[in-house]
Amino acid sequence: MKIHEYQAKDILARYGVPVQPGKVAHTPEEAEAIARELGGPVVIKAQVYVGGRGKAGGIQFGDTPEQARDAAKRVLGMDIKGLTVEKVLVTSKIDIKEEYYLGIVLDRKSQAPVVMVSTAGGIDIEEVAATTPEKIIQVPIDMRWGLRPFEALNIVKRAGFPSRILRQSAAILAGLAKAFIESDANLAEINPLAYTADGKVMAADGKIVIDDNGLFRQKEYATWAETEEANPLEYEAKQAGLTYVKLDGNVGIIGNGAGLVMTTLDMVARSGGKPANFLDIGGGAKAEIMYKSLIFVARDPQVKGILVNIFGGITRGEEVAKGVIMAQSELPKSMPIVVRLSGTGAEEGRALLKDAGLDWGKDMRDAAEKIVAAIARTEKGR
Amino acid sequence: MSILLDNTTRVIVQGITGREGQFHARNMRAAGTNVVGGVTPGKGGQTIEGVPVFDTVEEAKAATDANATCIFVPPPGAADAIMEAASADISLIVCITEGIPVIDMTRAMLVVHEHKATLIGPNCPGLCTPGFGKIGIIPYQIFTPGPVGFISRSGTLTYEVVSLLTEAGIGQSTCIGIGGDPIIGSTFIDYLRLFEADPQTKAVVMCGEIGGSDEEDAAEYIKTMSKPVVAFVSGRTAPPGKRMGHAGAIISGNTGTAQGKVAALEAAKASVAETIFDIPGLVRQIL
Question: What is the ipTM of this complex?
Fold first, then answer.
């Protein structure tokens, strides 16, 4: 789960990481009031779930509360990579002299969180990793201990941090590691870690991604979940227990099991179609879930037809068929549906589909070709 | 022969009194698996599906001499169940549970390594050796014994491809679903090593997907193998930055793309199938 910068900084502050004072504003007036309260020049930062805010104009400055209001007016409502800015973070402006990078990411190969530290801060770390990997120090955290203070110190020293910030940055890194582990994070980043003109070391920006599987015990953070404006359907699906990913095409796709659904997308593409989505109903789904999934996929206005591909195990074919038939009566007549059933209850399911006049494919390829052809026919008929 | 699961395997089921645990304990026994007991704290002394239930793995191991376990414990306690099994020196641990916090897995792996146990999963369908039985939730009836070792990151895709092989008259030695989480106990390369050493296995089919670099690592090992490998990679049409269901299936930056994996596997002289329907034909060519 993604969270906003102000929320990430809130977490970091709990672990002793210095951050600029600031608050979130939803209106220009709120921004003005916060700026007045803070006193002095402020930064207005768009709070959206994408990177590259600065380049898009989502970070602006105000020397006075009035200027802060005007800056907030410009940023609020702005569109950044398809997301509408609904709130801004108003923080005291700091005079940054040097920028560093501190990050922790879960690494499959070392089966542990890996600390990444670099003196090349402020820019895209993936770019640094690609072009000058020698500028990044990477060290896996020994999960028996977490990151111990001496290890944090060794890492920033080896990364070439100057003596004047060694102790502070090591303490911040140790705090970041503790925050990562205790918050069930997949990623935690301070970029840039700023060294200011008045000799302070602080997190000028913060990013944390929380592991969805950890949300059952991260109860406070779980309440921070909010709709991503660009993907309202994805958000809603998650709430309904479905795994849905929106794509660009017009063939709606529903299946059971991530690997099978992905393979179905590939098969539709090979058959000349363009998948509109990925939807995994998981294992053991009943007719009700199947019904909801079809209605859900069809809500995407780009969808012109739906392919259902189920390999029955704990999911039963007749349940799938019942769900599809329930949904069919509510979907537009012009919306073709092709169902492919295999495994448990496939024959019973196919019999039900036949009685309801629904089309079915004998295997995944046949079904993919049928739905692509059916959509082409309806498009032509228009 | 086969790998990991044969007639010496004695299985306990952790979480046997739960709905899933009980259902699959019954199916495993029906498939011929030697299920010797189950574990649910507080339910020791009962009998379920004809096998004794114990309160702890330690107790179950002492009473039954079990050497394998199948875990159906819900996510909050599943990593602890893995550590409990490893600490009791159960050598083969199969964890079916989906949704384990990844931080818990980083800790569980330390214990698994310390006790030199083999962990399959989590978030996997388990494994099957046709003729001996299965550990996990894979439907047993789709298999037929034969010379092909099978490994896949995904559950239902495994069933799909195994069915195609069986329909084509190509049998399997052992089939493993390795799991879709970012941190899993064993990856392709671990199983390829076992298949390379297994006399029954003459060829291996490996179904990978986008995300991570397990397929690329496997390709490096495939270069050194004497046995032929047929590979398939799903997610060729998946866009970068979108997680395709499995927590591990995401293209980030330039790593984890289907194209990169296919190129690495082709460079390792694996036969790469364009679609799953091409897999049986390619296997036939190399057998």
Answer: 0.91
